[in-house]
Amino acid sequence: MVTFPRLFFFRGLRLAFVSVLTVVMTGNRLNAGTVYTNESDFPFTQKSHIETFESASLSGTLDSGAVSHMSFASFDLFTSPAALKILNSAAFGAHNTTSGGSRYLYLDTDLGGEGTILNYTFSVPVYGFSLHLTDIDVDNTVIEIPGLIVYQVPAGTDGNDCFWGFTSSIPFTQAQINTQSDSSVGIDDVSVVIPEPGLSWFVPFAFALLHRRS
Ligand SMILES: [Ca+2]
Ligand SMILES: [Ca+2]
Question: Whose atoms come closest to the Cα of 96: which ligand?
Answer without folding.
Answer: 1
